[in-house]
Amino acid sequence: MNYKTKSNKVVFDDGKIIKLAYPVYKTELVGNVLIVLLESGTSEIYNENVFGIDVIKKEIIWQIPKIGYVDENSPYTQITVKKKNIVAYNWSGDLVTINPKTGKIQKKVYMK
Fold first, then answer.
1. Fewer CB under 10 Å: which end of the chain, C or N?
2. Percent of the chain predicted with pLDDT > 70
3. What is the CATH number of the domain that holds 29?
4. What is the reported pLDDT for 56?
5. Do 86 and 35 form a contact (C-beta atoms < 8 A)?
6. CA 1, CA 38: separation in Å to the nearest integer?
7. CB-based burial label for 27 (10 Å; 0-12, 13-18, 19+)
8. How many domains, in total, are found in the chain?
9. Each residue of 67-86: pLDDT tens digit?
10. Which residues pair with 38 in a beta bridge?
């Protein structure tokens, strides 16, 4: 289950590669799910830039769902692990708590 990131790819020790739309900014491992935050694109709006990858099956199992944004361009800029959940923050000021196994948003709070 070892992996490394290289630009827009997650590369597993067995050679399996998962290619993503933008470079990987940050990862967090929660159980068997690798949470991946992508860098925000500059040429297009790409707000749903958080993914869950099953490190056993080595496949994407979810992408963060679309939520109503204050700003049209509002990608996620930070992820952290808190009590076995993922907390993600976006440019609009939304702080969302995500179930790492399903990618479903459990709670949404506006922080600005």
1. C
2. 96
3. 2.40.10.480
4. 96
5. yes
6. 20
7. middle
8. 1
9. 876 677 889 999 999 999 99
10. 24
pTM: predicted TM-score of the whole model, two decimal places: 0.92
Spatial contact of 40 and 23, defined as CB atoms under 8 Å apart: no
Long-range contacts of 82-85 (CB under 8 A, 24+ apart): 84/30, 84/31, 85/30
Whole-number Å distance between alpha carbons of 51 and 30:
12
Burial (0-12, 13-18, 19+ Cβ within 10 Å), 15: exposed
Which residue in 103, 78, 105 sits closest to 91, CA to CA? 78
Determine the structural domain holding residue 12 and report its residue range.
3-110
Strands, E assignment, the chain: 3-6, 9-12, 17-19, 24-30, 33-38, 50-54, 59-63, 76-82, 85-90, 94-98, 105-110
pLDDT at 110: 86
Q: Looking only at Cα atoms, what is the longest distance across the chain?
A: 44
Count Cα neighbours of 71 within 13 Å in the Cβ-side half-sphere: 14
Cα–Cα distance between 43 and 38 in angstroms, integer? 14
